[in-house]
Structures are given as C-alpha cells and as structure tokens.
Amino acid sequence: MPKLLLEVDHVGHVYQTPEREIEALKDVSFQIEEGEFVSLVGPSGCGKSTLLAIAAGLEHPTYGEVRIDGKPITAPTTEIGFMPQKDQLFSWRNIRSNITLGLEIQRKGPEFYRKAEEMMEKYGLRDVGRMRPDQLSGGMRQRCSLIRTLVTDPRFLLLDEAFSALDYQTRVAVSVDIHTIIRNEHKTALLVTHDISESLMLSDRVIVLTRRPGKVKAIHELSALKNIPPMERLEHEAFGSMIKDIWGELEVHE
Amino acid sequence: MNELRNIAGNDRRSAYLRRRKTEFIRIRVFRIAVLILLLVLWEVLTRSGILNPFVFSSPSRILATGKDLSVSGALWRHVGTSVLETISGFVSGTILGILIAVVLWWSPAVSKVLDPYLVVLNALPKTALGPVFIVCIGTGAGAIIAMTLAISLIVTILNVLNGFNQTDAEKVRLMRMLGANRLQIFRKLVLPANLSTIVNALKINVGLSWVGVITGEFLVSRAGLGYLIVYGSQVFKMDLVMTSVAVLAVCAMIMHAGIMLIERATRTRFGGS
C-alpha cells in the first residue's frame, strides 16, 4: 500500500500590501503519495509560485498547513529538494563542486561524496566534473542542477517551472531526461508548470488551479497513460482530448 | 580537395591574425607618437618664448628638476610619504567599507535605519571635513589619512552593499533550500558572486585615495607630493610643481596597474562573473 508523503491541507494565502489585500490561494487541498510524480498547472498569477514557496517552507500560509510525513513544514527543510527555474549553477565553481554544494552546506560525510561520484558516473557527468558550467549545454546544466538536489537525498522534490527557460526542442528532451532520472531514483516530485503537454507527458496526476485566488479546479488521474513512457504519450489517442479539457479548465481566453 | 580547403582556411586564419597584430602595433605606435608630439610641442613653444617657461615649465626643465630632487634624496622622501599615506588610506577605506557593507547586508533593519545618513554623507563634499580632521587629529599624517578614508569609505560601502543586495534572489532561495544559514549564504554565494564589484571598488578607491592624500597635504603637511605642489606654487617655482605632478601621475599609474593585476588574478581564479 502506497504511503502518503505530502499533504496540502486547506491551505490559503493572503498577501498584505499597503493598498490592499491580495488573496493568492484559497482552500487548496491535495495529497501526494510516495513515488508519485504530480504536476500543478494553472494560468499565470494563479498562486502556483506561492504554493511552491509554502511547500518549500519559505513562506507561511495564512491558514492551513503543508505536511511531509505528517510533520508540518514551517521552515526550509533538507527533506525537500528544490530545483529552480534556471539551473542556477555557480559560475565560479566547476561542475563537481556545484553538485556537492548541498553536501558542503549540510556538512555531510564522505559516504555522500562517494554517492555523488557514483551518480555523476551513472548520469554521464564524470567527464565534465572539472569543467565550468558555461562549457556545458543547457540540457547538461539542467541535469547537473537535478543531481545537485538529489545528492543530498531529499524525500521530496519541488520542480519550479524547471524547464521553462529552455527553447522548445531542448525543453522536451530535458524534461524527459529529468523525469527518467527522478523515476530511476524512486523519488517523489511535484512539478509546477504552465505547460499542459509537459504535465501530461511526465505525471501520474495533474492538478489544475484556477486563476487568482487559486483554488483546485480539477484533479486528473492519468490512468489511461500510466506506464507509457513520456515520448510515446504524445502519440496516445487520449492525449489531445486531455490537453483540450485542461485548456478549457484554465479559462485562458476570458 | 579537402586538403586544399584546409590550406585556404589556414591562409584566411593567418591573414586575420596578421591583420590583428598590425592593428595592435599601429595603435601602440600612434599612442606613443601622441605623447612625443605633445612633449616636443611643449618644449619648442617654451624654448621659442611663445609660452613663458617660468609659468609653463618645460619637459627638459622637469627632467632637470627631477634629477636634482632625486639626487638630493628629497624626491624619494616626498614620494614615500605620499605613497604610504595613500596606501594606508586605500587599505583602511576599502577594508572598513567592505566590513560595514557586510554588516548592513547582514542586518536589513540597520541598513534601513542608516540609509538616509549614507545618502547625505555620500552627497557631502568630503573635503569640507578637512578642517574638522585637522582640529581633531592634528596637523600630521593622521589627518591626511582620515581625509582619504572619508573620501573613499562611503562610496565603497554604497557600491559593495548595492552589489551584495543585487545577488540573484533565485540563487539565495536555492541556498536556503539546501539548508544554508546566513553565513554560508554569504561565504559561498554573496562574496564570490560580488568579487567583480569589490575589484571595481578597489579601482575607484585608488583614484579617490590620491585625491584624499593630495587635498590633505595641501591643507596641512610638511612633506609629500601635495606639499611640494603647494610649496612650489607659493614660491613660484613652476618647475617643481610640474615635476611633482608628473611624478604623481607615474605613482598613480603604478598603483592602478597593481589593481589590474589583482583583477586578472581573481578572474583566472574564479572564471568571469
């Protein structure tokens, strides 16, 4: 029986500004089980990033709470790994020391560094270990960014529009690559994105948020696409109609 | 066929490299030519009496004065005094400025409280404080270094703090998610990301330190290049004034070159930004 890992429990968030209150999120609830890959899609300004910041422990919700393994998240925790929008590799560090940045910060022991070497070997980064980030392609850099997150061994991954900075062709290839690695390492992940086809390609489940204040509009279990690899999903008969459904729910044209 | 194309390619390449080299040499030659032209013009105009050599001095008179001064040892004493004051002011202004910027970055609350004071101090012409330093510290090297510090400190704080605060917010967020505390964020992100800001502050401060030292010496001192300039003008020895200015230019250039070396070292060590 799959174990519940992340619970978003009636979370709401109101921003205060001197001029007015802005309600960003309203009563959002959903759950993610261990090993699942879930996407959160919504129109821009739907509170996706607010929800991400709350789940990351960077921001406190106005009401409700997010729990990991039953424990409320109130501050950034090393149990949650974060993959930012751009790769955010540090130009003054080589690839290897970018990847071990988290281990340095968390003062991890040598076994973690050994594991980092193994992962670099496994995912083809060993030969570029001494190179500078700007010597690598966008896709390779994104892979480094993921490995940097994975080597600290978090229980849960947050992917913040992780592919949106890349051009279309690279984006598809990189998202598939990142997805494969996450599956391979048996990690649980929440991907925040505005790209519907990306969410359908990669996820077990898609959660659709409404525009501000963000509420859960629909949750799609992608059972029809289960066990189908991402690229083949593109050709599945249900794919087109699913895009259309979610597109309709986003109410982009209003 | 392929070979043929390669040879053609190599020719293109070497032609390009040759053009680049001649271009480089040509610019060098013209630079030196401009200097020689100006010096010759100066010399000719003063010798022919079109310009008064007692007011405008001349390259040959500057050389002669410089030779006399260095033989008597006076030149080295004055240069030594000014260089020492400049380096003390430069080092203390830079280090203190960076330290204060670190404190203000660390505590946004303190930064907000002090912001208007920094703005006012930055706008204030620091030379106005000269007499205050003289009264408080006395007419010695202390007042001159204080003057230099006053001129370079505030600019350093503002520039460096600005750089610190503009560190990519996404990277700060990444550091926090990796579990970094504020010290780790500073050491592993903010400081290395701002090395170029700091080197820029060094460059600006070299120039400002010389301004501080020369104005300080104008006001109080018994030695130094600033003193020589003021003394020379008071006894109407323009040769002495011009010689001091020339020596000053050389000293400032050498210090600037030193900073450029530091810049190159940080760039090779940390690879760009």
What order do the helices and strands come in, and which of them pair?
The complex is a heterodimer of chains A (254) and B (273).
Chain A: E1 4-16, E2 21-33, E3 37-41, H1 48-56, E4 63-68, E5 71-72, E6 80-83, H2 95-99, H3 101-105, H4 110-122, H5 138-150, E7 156-160, H6 168-184, E8 188-193, H7 196-202, E9 205-209, E10 216-221, H8 230-233, H9 237-250
Helix pairs in contact in A: 5-6
Chain B: H1 2-47, H2 53-56, H3 59-72, H4 74-106, H5 108-123, H6 130-137, H7 141-165, H8 169-177, H9 182-193, H10 195-219, H11 225-234, H12 238-270
General description of the model:
The complex is a heterodimer of chains A (254) and B (273). Chain A has 254 residues and is of the alpha/beta class. Chain A folds into 2 domains: 1-79 and 156-254, Rossmann fold (3-Layer(aba) Sandwich); 85-153, no CATH class. Helices cover 34% and strands 26% of the residues of chain A. Chain A has 9 helices and 10 strands. Chain A has helices at residues 48-56, 95-99, 101-105, 110-122, 138-150, 168-184, 196-202, 230-233, 237-250, and strands spanning 4-16, 21-33, 37-41, 63-68, 71-72, 80-83, 156-160, 188-193, 205-209, 216-221. In chain A, the strands form 2 sheets. In chain A, strands 6-7-8-3-9-10 form a 6-stranded mixed β-sheet, with helices on both faces. In chain A, strands 2-1-4-5 form a 4-stranded antiparallel β-sheet, with helices on one face. In chain A, strand 9 and strand 10 (216-221) form a beta hairpin. In chain A, helix 5 (138-150) packs parallel to helix 6 (168-184). The N and C termini of chain A lie far apart (42 Å). The mean pLDDT of chain A is 88. Chain B is mostly helical and 273 residues long. Chain B has 2 domains: 2-51; 56-270, MetI-like (MetI-like fold, Orthogonal Bundle). Chain B has 12 helices and no strands. The longest helix of chain B has 46 residues, at 2-47. Chain B is flat and about 75 Å long. In chain B, 32% of the residues are buried. The mean pLDDT of chain B is 90.
